[in-house]
Amino acid sequence: MTDSRSTEVSKLVELLPGFHCGACGYDRCDDFAEALVRGEAKLDDCPYLQTERFAEERRRLEKLLEEIGEAEGARPSITGVLDGYEADLVLSPLPDEPACREILHPFWSEADIEEGDVIRYRPWGCPTTHFARVLDAEKGLLTVHIVGPRHRLGETDFEYKDVGLCLVVGFEGIVSEGRVPNVGETVRFVPEHCMMQKVHSGVVIEAVGDRLRIECIDLKVWAPPK
Prior knowledge:
This protein folds into two domains: 3-73, Electron transport complex subunit B, putative Fe-S cluster (3-methyladenine DNA Glycosylase II, Chain A, domain 3, Orthogonal Bundle); 79-218, no CATH class. It contains three helices and eleven strands, in the order αααβββββββββββ. The chain has helices at residues 3-15, 29-38, 55-74, and strands at 78-79, 86-87, 89-92, 101-106, 118-123, 130-138, 141-146, 161-178, 186-191, 200-208, 211-218. Strands 3, 4, 5, 6, 7, 8, 9, 10 and 11 form a nine-stranded mixed beta sheet that branches. α1 (3-15) packs across α2 and α1 packs antiparallel against α3. The longest helix has 20 residues, at 55-74. It is elongated. The chain starts with a helix and ends in an 8-residue tail after the last strand.
């Protein structure tokens, strides 16, 4: 979670009843506060905020959420170039690495892939041929860095192994723009190195600071453009 988002949540938590009763659908009031900030919950979900006892707190919460909404609206949106969908974040490379890490599962290949090899493949659902350098090859999964499309296949300054169609299992990288999501959250994101700047979707499996691992990758984005 970014510092600004953490501050917003903390201010909301101070005004919530603090009973951690679960009546709102969340185990704790701080979880409820995070959902309020993300727009996934509303104040009416808390039964205590509908009572006279917490009338003043509710008024202040409404004002604070309005201010947060205005601040969110002032922030530049992250929009996919190809599809026009709005993303939650941009995923950038880990420090000193050339591109986000991708975890691939080849559907079929006779090539014997080893660490350091350059491979040519097409991600399932993507029309663009990719070239990548292999960081790790184990148990049918390849962890790679994108090294770019090489459309001029007549070039002789590099060698590669063709692995054909691949399922992109996951991405690893750093959140450089947008918000840092929670583990288990489904997010829309743009990999910084994506040639088409297309919005991807996936589930956050690990989040350590601003470093994420996102799996269940899909190029289909079910939510309509905003």
